[in-house]
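Quick question about two entries, pasted in order.
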Amino acid sequence: MSSTLDDDVTRDPSPPGRGSGPRSAGPILLLVLLLAVVGGLLSRGTSAPQPATAPDEVFSAERAAAAAAPLVQEPRPVGTEANAAAHDHLAEQLAGAGFEVTSSEGIGRRTAEGTGSAGYVRNLVATRPGSDPTGTLVLATHIDSVPHAPGAADAGVGLAVILETVRALGPEALRNDLVILLVDGEEPGLLGAQAYVDGAGEELRAPVVVLNHEARGISGRPLVARTAGPMHETLPAMPRPEYESFTDALFGVIPNDTDFTVYRDEGGWWGLDVALIGEAWAYHSPQDDAEHLDPGSLQHYGELTLSLTRELGAQDLAALEDPGEDRPVQTTMPWGILVMPPWLVQGLGLAAPLALAATAAVLRRRGRLTLLGTSFGALLALLAIALAGAAGYGLWSATAAASPDILSQAMKEPVVALPFLGAELLAGATVMAAAWLLGRLLIGRDALLAGTGMLALLLIAAVAVLSPAFASSMVLPAAAAGIGILLGTLLPPVPSLVVRAAALLPTGWLVGTQVHALGEFGIASSVGALAATTALALAAAAPLLIAPQGEASGTARRPHRLLIPVLPAVLAIGLAIGGIALTRAAGEPVQERVVAAVDAETGHTRWESDGVTEWGRSLDGTEGTSVVEGPQVEVEPAGEGTTSTRIRLTSARPGAEFRMELAEGEFSGVTVDGEPLSDDGSAGAQGLRTLRIVGVPAGHEVVIEAEVPDGASMEVVETVYSPALADGWVAPGSGVSLVQPRVEISRTVTL
């Protein structure tokens, strides 16, 4: 007697040529799945760039790039001359387009995670009143970039899109008020957006709908990352619309942030947060320039904004109803965006495993599988899905550790990501193949497929019930798979095959679109998730490969088949090695980050580098004595009748950036130039360990008042992004790209 978990079968009795069996239907179903995957992959392309000769009413990537070209020639951090020049150039262009243009200077203030930030910002607002306004449409982005990055994408792409959109709209007023909001100080902490919302933003005609433009990459399909309010009624106006509630939910748990957070949470505005995310290796680096920005992505971004602007500009915004907590769940289908109430997502999620359970009961009565064998298949599937993700993560981690020179500094992405993404998928395939072959040594094919599907469908159902938004993209393929196998089991062979093939289409589409989208996120950002997501989706559809008619399938006692996973494993390693070679041959400089720590009192200087290049390693650890003026700090009591301390800071450099950190205790009741760090005073109540002041004009005296522990030690650091100021600096060659190199000049004072 064979010792298997499926005690009702001892061999694989499937005879060749059985029309209803898996050997005839299997290749057909796999071909359908493959074609659907390819369709999903091809669906996520970008628009063909339109030339400058395109009709006036059409968005042109060439015209947009030309309009933004003067703005993205050099970095424009908050408080710098380049920032002011960009501001003035934008004001001139918008005034020429017939807008009423105003500039507002102020201090943006925000607090988060024990740090209080304040910045001297200069926002630009251009307004065109509506002909019969029912609300306000705001096209928003930010002017500033990080130091040492021209910011052609972040957020120069937003500037280009908005300028060309305004041109394409022409001089005629829309129905609703149109506001162009170009804020300052986004990079150091959303400071300009906060200043506007706290001030002039309160005067906008409600409801306010904002289209916020962002980028953390230089290519790819513009991603609607977040929404607020009843935008599900407007999204279909986009060309080739695409949106997943999953990304909105995911944004709530990742560390990234944009001005949209301020507009939604502080201003109460409705709208969309849109971004480019492809090729994030250039993010916050000198390579974020006009030469690297993909014109197809710019074209697609512009078409999206122009179409939504025309739609929202003409719409009765007052008639839109905010869904509040009952926000619908949305997912992208081949024909457009599908909108579902949360209860329907939960119901479909639960229906899938229930349908598969009914199928398993029918097959068990037919003697096709056992409860024990199916349970073992589910356990094996759980391990396989987890290990598939772990294999992808481990392979990339090993690759990155072995070749740090191929990684960008901000996002740790390689210039050429595709081979590494393929390697992760192959690593996951290696695990899944090994699990399948191991399972076939112990249980029958039907039990293994049923158990695999049951585990995956139960996982998706749990997510759908707990957080419908997170299940937005997977619930329909899961429901199609569960219901499809139940119907296929009850139908005759030919209709069964048709039903099962149709039920596979949503899974194939999902895999194709998800692989493409996660690929745009990048290998470092989605590592492990790509393999695990693909494995989960395929596992959920696995029961569709069960041949409903015929005899039970037994175990496959062919241990030599365990060598099969060697092929994808070898290919995965080969792709990783090839990816390293392709990245090094791509012609892009190696990114390096360096910092010089300078003692303001003694001038003692010590350099630190990530050391991924020979130049960086030679600089790392070197010391010297710098002759550089440090931050001027004065400390005094705030005055009679108060226990506050007054701290005065000045710098001779424009756009100064200060950081103050207490060795122990907290700042509370903080004001900057007489303005509380938070309008509601909550910052002082919470207590802060660190204060940041950015964009300080040269020679301006910053006056900070705060409650601090008596006699506490405070370190004051002024950050300067000109490494040549520090002793020991040696400029790198053309093969090295410096990512925000900085000099930190510090002094310690007693409060």
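Here is the second entry:
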Amino acid sequence: MKHMNSEVKEERTSNKNRIDLFLVPIVLIAAFLNLFKIWTDEYANAYYTAAVKSMLQSFHNFFYASFDPGGYVTIDKPPVVFWIQTISAKIFGFHGWSVILPQALAGIGSVLLLYVLVKRTFGVWAGRFAALAMALTPIVPAVSRTNNIDSMLVFTLLVATWMLFRAVRTAKFGWVLAAFAMIGVAFNMKMLQAYMVLPAFYVFYVVATKITWKKKIAFLTTATALMLAVSVSWAVVVDSTSADKRPYMGSSQTNSVLELAFGYNGINRLTGNTSVTGSGHKQPAQTEQQTASSETKQTSNSSADSSQSSNQRKSSSSQKMQAPGGGNQNGMFNTGNPGPFRLFQKGLSDQISWLLPFVIFSIVGLFAGVKFKGPYTTKQKESLFWLAWLLPVAVFFSIAGFFHQYYLIMLAPPIAAFAGAGAVALWSMYKQHNGWKSWLLPGGILTTAALQVYIMSPYVSSIGVAPIAGVGALGVILALVLAVRKQRKNSLTNYLGAAAMVVLLAMPAYWAMTPIIYGGNSMLPSAGPDSSSGMGGPPSTATNSKQSGFNGMQPPGSSSGNSSSNGGQMPGGSSNNGQMQPPSGSSNSGQMQMPGGSSNNSQMPNSFSSKSSSSKRKSGGMNAEVNQKLLNYLTKNNTGEKYLFATTDSTSAAPYIIKTGKPVMAMGGFSGSDPILTVSKLKAMIKKGEVKYFYLSGMGKGGQSDVITWIKDNSKEIPSSKWQSTSSSAQQGPSGNGTLYEITLK
């Protein structure tokens, strides 16, 4: 801390090729958090892992990002990240860790990029603090340890930021084009989410470049046109290709990439209207209680079906999703309730908001004395960039109707940048006794410590009182001592400032380690003592201390006499005396689905926590294990059919694709509600000998209702003794464990 005042001058005179020895341990920390034990995740997000398995088999599947080897339907995202994952699997072999590796490396790369971006303008210590804050932001390693897209998306946007900063420094238009083209590449990773940074890019370029307004407008217009061209390039090719020559565009209702981009993966995220029926009509999001109940069913076996009577729901209320500290359910998918303080609510704050009060104080300090008309220093211009990234994204997450906790990684770069730049700026103001600005440092430390106590308080049963009391007490003491010692310049004050930074980063560091300590969830990654549940809530949401055990869950076709007393159930499945059931075929109308993972049971926590004796975690969910007896039966009786079997959605299909590499038809796509198949099309496929076995289970049928009814009316039921994994077949509830059908048409 004592070197901060002169760090910029020292940096300019230092050897540019010299390795920053302080950066080395930061990178090692990031590497540990992102890479350690990823080899234990056998299936990762099974929905995406199955796609990689399929993409390895042909260029046709590779280009379109086909979910299944037969090229029937794509996944619900554009292909760029999955191209990278497929290349990784081609080089290192097909494993869970090989599809996770690109994201883990992207997480480490983001730490390095943030160091480079912040260091050049704000100094080496600011770069170090920013890199460390990025590495220790809990949601960053939690996401990077999975094969979800967001870690790679953030890395790509930081590369674009580096290009933009270089464009301003060198005054070369080529770098502007490259920066916006990179955002176009990011669009082909997760569509409109990539455009969240555009306000920052436009504002910064307008403010920071010293060219005429005419050139600014011309350059930005050209760069934007290039960005849009790159963004829609893949979509135009796909949508221009005849539908019978490519897979159906999964999770769209019109078989269109552009509809997927601007609807399902776009505006509907803001409005919350992401639930669809087979007819393509969007249904409004459920009420808070219904949605949270649905999410609980998808990620734990601790609540009963949403169709329970109110008395049944009350009787199981202790098993439902609870907000940290108890009380009402914590919003949709545990993402809080929309409002200006949503990021401070339980469920989101422990993922991203640990340093937000300090960031707010840093913003005040960095912009203190700035006049609207300028002139602006380089520090002020780049601070404006990070602010224009932070605010729109924070506003979106404050009002959005539907997102998952791991999307919050989009906030990590600006928060980390302000934490680093602000630490140096506030320290300088404190040491120079700059009037009221000298109080920003102790004020930021005090309020940040208070928020961290608030964040941790619901987890007292897991982490104990000591860490909470320690952070609170040390934060108050250090803030008060720094306030008292404002007029003294000695080494003790420097050590106190450094100690305060350590205290504020201690619990985020612990939270960032929880996916390693407790086990993670590749479907809905989150950090915290219950990270393996993917729920983001406090330990009280689990029915027992193991949280991620869920050993009562069975793969398709298995039947167990064991039952859970909590009657867990999943959308599209049934509650069978507590046994989790495979999906019935659809996301029932009005039930919110979970993009990027299965809408049904593949969102369940992994069956093997870090405390499990198993060396591998099949965290693809309940159906991340195949029923070997069913597989043997289907393989033995296949007479040349293209598809091993057909099922209603991706949940039951994914593990069999991963296991065998053979085509398995998810008739309704990801959630079972895509209007892909009609009775006439299915008849034609059966007559051509493409498919004859159908695994169906459960309740709602969504957009596949007519098809499923026809299958049941025109098929031969296969006795369960031939393919179920156990002899026990006692079932309760309306649907049992599912049924295998055979249809042969002449």
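Reply: The mean pLDDT is 81. The beta strands are 275-276, 282-283, 646-647, 665-666, 693-696, 716-717, 739-742. Hope that helps.
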